[in-house]
Specification:
The protein is an alpha/beta fold. It has a domain at about 5-110 and about 230-285: Spore Coat Polysaccharide Biosynthesis Protein SpsA, Chain A, CATH 3.90.550. The chain is built from ten helices and twelve strands. The protein has a five-stranded mixed β-sheet with strand order 3-2-1-4-9, with helices on both faces. It has a three-stranded mixed β-sheet with strand order 5-12-11.
């Protein structure tokens, strides 16, 4: 089994280096997408490793905009022809909680399972519904867009505009845009979005569409019965405007007891000790039995 780790990044190449070093495994390759708004030069030393590659077709990424989706799709285009068994989409601010061998074995033992969180905006994740059902001009780069957005949603509330309706009879689900999927599932998503431009247009008027688009496409497909929760530990307590907590040393025991393979998110400039604790823990880890 071979796994491609697609890593989206925009800062702190040294933290990314630590991530790659601790996650290194003979069956793992790393594909790095550097935000097009950022100079890639400080990251290029990482390509000295034979299993590290840079995504050539870079996309500018703005928080909560479609750029994250496009960056991921650009990565898919370059990775899919290389015939990996799984593609793990992650961020440079994520970090493994288990050893590379444990991660490899966990996924190998569950071959064919799709790891992506799919909470419904109708019940489990109701507070996210406005992000999908209202108009959001996050991808527009024009003066006065916030005023236009407020006006459009006011007219929507007064029923002067028709309700936003998804182009297909789909249940909208999601939560996190970090996931671990088989290559056939990734190929399905990629082909589906190419064949359904109306779906893409719909999501381009959502806020944080990356947290819905991949999960919703897969959930409403024949892959649904193979879906399980994502492999990433995230703490949403106390978050503001969609940001999870930055994890620190106080989270170590909870993370390790969670059963998850990765944690999100970390910032070495805020707390580098937690990364050191995880590195030490991984070095001492015993293989899964």
């Amino acid at each position: 089994m071979r796994i491609a780790h697609l890593i989206l990044t925009h800062k702190n190449p040294q933290q990314l280096e630590r991530l790659i070093k601790v996650l290194d495994h003979p069956a793992f390759d790393f594909y790095i997408h550097v935000d097009k708004k950022v100079d890639q030069t400080p990251f290029e030393f990482l390509a000295q490793k034979k299993n590290v590659f840079f995504i050539k077709n870079r996309s500018p990424v703005y928080w909560a905009g479609y750029g994250t989706i496009q960056a991921t799709l650009n990565g898919f285009e370059e990775i899919l022809p290389k015939k990996y068994d799984y593609i793990n989409v992650t961020s440079a601010q994520d970090f493994p909680l288990r050893s590379p061998e444990q991660i490899y074995q966990f996924i190998a033992d569950r071959a064919g399972v799709e790891f992506i969180t799919c909470q419904s905006i109708e019940d489990e994740w109701k507070d996210a519904a406005p992000r999908v059902l209202k108009y959001h001009l996050i991808n527009w780069r024009i003066p006065g867009k916030h005023r236009i957005e407020r006006l459009a949603n006011k007219m929507l509330e007064k029923k002067l505009f028709p309700p936003r309706k998804f182009p297909l009879d789909y249940k909208i689900v999601g939560r996190s845009n970090w996931f671990t999927l088989t290559s056939p599932a990734v190929q399905y998503i990629r082909d589906f979005l190419q064949q359904h431009p109306k779906v893409v247009r719909y999501f381009k008027l959502c806020w944080g569409a990356d947290e819905f688009i991949f999960a919703s496409v897969l959930y409403n497909s024949t892959f649904k019965d193979r879906i399980r929760d994502s492999l990433v530990y995230v703490d949403w307590t106390g978050q503001t405007e969609g940001h999870p907590r930055i994890l620190d040393v106080g989270d170590f025991d909870k993370m390790k007891a969670s059963g998850k393979l990765f944690g999100r998110k970390f910032d070495a400039d805020i707390d580098s000790r937690i990364l050191q604790m995880l590195e030490e823990s991984i070095q001492k880890a015993k293989p899964l039995t």
